[in-house]
Amino acid sequence: MTPFDFLSPQTLAEACHALAAAGRRPIAGGTDVIPQWRAGRFQAETLVDLSRVPGLSDVTLRDGEIAIGALSTYTELHASPVLRAHAPLLAEVSAMIGGAQTQNRGTIGGNIANASPAGDTLPPLLVLDAQVDLISAAGERSLALSAFLRGPGQTASEAHEIIRRVRFAPLPRGARSLFLRLGNRQGMVISVVSAAFVLQLDDHGRVEEARVALGAVAPTAIRCAEAEALLRGRPLDDDLIARAADAAVAAARPIDDVRASAAYRRHGVRVLVRRGLTQLSAPGGGEQ
Amino acid sequence: MPELQVVGQTVERLDSRAKVTGGAAYAADIAVDGMLHMKIVFAGRPHALIRSLDATAALALPGVVDVITAADVPVNVRGLIRRDQQVFCDRLVRCEGDQVCAVIAETAEAAEAAARLVRIAYEDLPVLSSAEEALRPGAIQLHAEWPGNVCHRIHLRQGDPDAALAAAEVVVCGEFHTPMQEHAYLEPEAGLGYIDEAGRVTVRTSGQATHDDLRQIAAALNLPEDAVRVVYGAIGGAFGGREDTSVQVALAVAAHKLRRPVKTVWSREESIRGHGKRHAITIRHTWGARRDGTLQAAKIEIISDAGAYNYTSSEVLANFLYSAVGAYRFEHAQIDGVAAYTNNVPGCAFRGFGSPQSTFAAEMMIARLGEAVGLDPITIRLRNCVRTGDKLITGSPLVGPVSLVELIEACAARAGAVREGDGWRLPTPESTTPTKRRGFGIAVGMKNSGFGWGIPEGSYARVVLHGARRIERAEVYTAAADVGQGAHSVLAQIAAETLGLPLDRVQMIVSDTATAGDAGPCSASRMTMYGGNAVRAAAAEALAKWQNEDRPASGGGRWVAPATTALLPDPDANRNFVSYAYGAQAAEIEVDIDTGAIEVIRIVAAHDPGRAINPQQVLGQLQGGLVQALGWTLTENFITHDGRIETDRLSTYLVPTIRDVTTPVEYVLLERPDDVGVFGVRGVGEISMILPAPAIAAALHDAVGVWHDRLPLTPERVAARWPEYTG
Chain B: nearest CA to A263, how far in angstroms? Predict the structure, then answer.
């Protein structure tokens, strides 16, 4: 544990300025940064505390777009009426991350920045087609979450950039969504496999739109383009669900670790995709 | 016995308010003026030669006072049973948790920073990563004194098991693997070493036996025992993991050398690497029986991973000499066991002391035998289990009332089993979810209370009565460790009862070798039984003196437990233990056949505390053992690879959280007073730990028709045995 300096900027501009220098690293809730620091996994000389920066913790629905400030905690996301109405899977997943203390401290921006393959908000954000807004002293830019996530702990952001917010379109009326995960105990556990779904069916049970994302089975959380393509335009029956599950398994690139083998993770992908789609195909399943 | 006033009552624990309000002082909470901070440098590698140690850079860091090494330890060994571990390694490292040196500095930060600057050149050596590997001919030798890496062997033969097995109508075999388990006590190791006002080298820490710690410190420092003092404050759990020393000797060496107070606090990762684990054990059984299910013969092999040092490996293995056959009667048996030195974290004491492992294997065997001969799980157990007047497989008489039959029947009935004809009809729970299956299982067992095996046992206590016309205050001096089980409160109840005083006139003066003699360790479910006997005897003596007009009146000394014997060749001469606990548990589970996740729906736990001194504390012990067993059975997967611990934090080593222990547990308590325990108590510290694993594994078989031989029953292991598994 190397000692570090600690800056507490009071405005976004100050925060950007503080991060412009070398050897700086942002910290918000600290639920990932502090354990990593204790484990000696980074050597920042200065931590820049974002938690006092105002205006970064609102959840708003404006002009057909939901914007979530990066400092929004899991507790806030779980309680958000906007999310409950328009992106319920994100509200639900927020109550499944860590324990109460972690949910009170941990932020959605932190979960994105940490870029863990098993980060539980990431599959839901991927099926919501989320955009990540970055800001720095040099300006602002925006990129799709799928492009932002590069690998375990690797992102497309530069050291001086701050995640300001994450944006996505609210789910349309009648859209069905769901988040499922497997873990080795009842909560307070890192996911072994996770899966998120958004599905729209027409009046005849045919798939109009399908989005499927997986967590903990590849270097990043991933979307399953092949499974989605297979689903679109077809009636959601058991056979299609089985084929979509096959396609999802094919998209996974899991590893063996202390939590599970790659083989069990592949099996888990099949189980979760089959279960998720079956649940969503039921009348009213996962509907807004 | 006259009606009891304080014993048998659920009274508030003496320490509960302080613990709930944060006032209780654990070792890490102690700070004194001028205190230094110690950071131990662990080897962090499983097997290596130390080529050189250069502390120059560390010593040069501002605030660093000293770096202590093997050269600073007069007699550089420690060990509870066998002094086979160096305090600081001078040449050879045998496990990751070996301590190589310690940096002492004015601040904890400086000590930690300097610890990283100690340059140690290692030459890594080949690693023995399992007992099987270590026992192979030609394996490298870890301890010159213990050829073949044999840490300990046991052997017992009764009757003619070979002939009996050859002639048996039914033969059942099995091989079982049980994993290491981390104690995961709330309080990581910590302590303060200092020189007290009487000039004694003093260590204030957490442990299970002040006097065992003291003897190891005195031996390492080559000091007389009265020049050393050990004091325990509030202790955040122990479960066997604090029987061996961790920080004690290093703190004493530092304080002795520097003549200043020295403190250390381990992180969770250091704790997991730095103390022992429940032994990983492989057990092979061959059982022969009559077609009617009557057991006749058993041949059993036990291979235990002792890890790098003995700790209590030899004693844990020795307990298999009786526990390997479970709670069953055999005419013929052969038991062969070996504990092997490896480069893994040492195996040590852990709640149950080998009985969770032996009971899991024996109960899986009886379950299979029941299936083979077509008897239900209750009938096969009742047909074979020990009864009052029976003997252990060693020939040792089962002294005292054996309540096992009664417990099995009570457990079965509460769980919903019904007698039908010659047998029992079991509950047949059904899941309402298509992808889930339910099952019901039962397990029964016994556990010795007290060490037995000829180890001299007793406990010291002293009681002093103050007052003039009436007793105003009774001081009870005991070194018994209250590791969280409530020992001090229960001992106070025993004193109050004996003296006929209200509890608030009893003052406990505890856990300090300067004020009390050796109470013996808090282990083997023994402290209430034996510590309680010592307190009662001391109180009775003091009361007699009070009545004889002594003011103050004082009584006490060492209470000596009934003698036992080691394993003797003549079965009739064996008196291996003097007290036992019995239990029966039933579990209903629901398993998700796709994911393999097991949910425990319901547990019935039938136990015999002999007499509950404090009924709430008895329940606390039973609940604690159950939860620890649920972890060992389901979620706690301790993984090592080539001697390296891969689950060194609580995010990878998954102990149950509150969400995992929502299972309703119904307790059935039958009090059948014991002959030896004070007021008839039996030890209840361990018995509930040994039964959940086999009960759940039996329920899993009932649910999906698969016998599992390896713990923990992780979702992956369970799912992988289902025919539709696609992994």
Answer: 4
Rounded CA-CA distance B593/B444 in Å is 27
CA B49/CA B375 separation, integer angstroms? 57
Residue-range domain boundaries for chain A: 5-49, 59-168, 189-281
Q: CB distance B716–A264 less than 8 Å?
A: yes
ipTM of the complex: 0.95
The answer to whether the CB of B61 falls within 8 A of the CB of B114 is: yes
pLDDT mean values, one per 10 residues, chain B (727 residues):
88 96 96 97 98 98 98 98 98 98 97 97 98 98 98 98 98 98 98 98 98 98 98 98 98 98 97 98 98 98 98 98 98 98 98 98 98 98 98 96 98 98 95 96 98 96 98 98 97 98 98 98 96 98 98 97 97 97 98 97 97 96 98 98 97 95 96 94 97 98 98 98 94
Domains identified in chain B and CATH numbers:
27-125+183-274 (3.90.1170.50), 281-451+570-720 (3.30.365.10), 458-560 (3.30.365.10)
DSSP letter for B399, please. -
Using DSSP, state whether B322 is helix, strand or coil: helix
Return the CATH number of the domain spanning residue range A189-281: 3.30.390.50
Kindly determine whether residue A188 and residue B595, on different chains, have CB atoms separated by under 8 Å: no
B103's tokens = 């940096």
SS3 A66: strand
In angstroms and rounded to an integer, the radius of gyration of the C-alpha atoms of chain B is 26
Phi, psi of B420 (to 5 degrees): -150, 115
| Option in A249, A258, A275 nearest B647 (CB) | A258
CA distance A193 to A221: 10
Strands B170-178 and B190-195, bridge-based pairing? unpaired
Contact A190 B647 (CB under 8 A): no
Helix locations, B262-312, DSSP H = 268-274
Nearest to B631 by CA among B714, B697, B702, B523: B714
| Nearest alpha carbon to residue B669 among B587, B588, B600, B582 | B582
The half-sphere exposure of B524 on its side-chain side, counting CA atoms within 13 A, is 24
Query: Touching check for B195 and chain A: CB below 8 Å?
Result: no
How far is it, in rounded angstroms, from Cα A91 to Cα B570? 70
- C-alpha span between A34 and A39 (Å, rounded): 8
Contacts of B113 in chain A (CB under 8 A): 2
Task: List Cα–Cα distances, B707 to A156, B174, B684, in angstroms.
Answer: 49, 10, 29
Using a CB-CB cut-off of 8 Å, the residues of chain B touching A187 are 657, 659
Cβ–Cβ under 8 Å, residues A133 and A55:
no
Which of A228, A135, A127 lies closest to A168, judged by CA?
A127
Contacts of B726 in chain A (CB under 8 A): 249, 266-267, 270
Length of chain B equals 727
Q: Going by CATH, does the domain composed of A5-49 fall within 3.40.50.970?
A: no
Measured between alpha carbons, how far is B665 from B588 in angstroms, rounded to an integer? 11
SS3 B228: strand
How far apart, in whole angstroms, are the C-alpha atoms of residue A20 and residue A9? 13
CATH of domain A59-168: 3.30.465.10
pTM reported for the whole predicted model: 0.97
Q: Pull the structure tokens for residue B117.
A: 């600057």
CA distance B303 to B309: 16
> What is the C-alpha separation between B85 and B216, in angstroms, rounded?
11
Total length of chain A? 288
B607 vs B627: CA distance, rounded Å: 16
β-sheet bridge partners, residue B420: B423
Quote the minimal CA–CA distance from A270 to chain B in Å: 8
Query: Where does chain A have alpha helices with state H?
Result: 12-20, 33-38, 74-79, 81-86, 88-94, 100-105, 108-114, 122-127, 145-148, 225-231, 238-251, 262-281
What's the rounded Cα separation, in Å, for the pair B68 and B100? Answer: 9
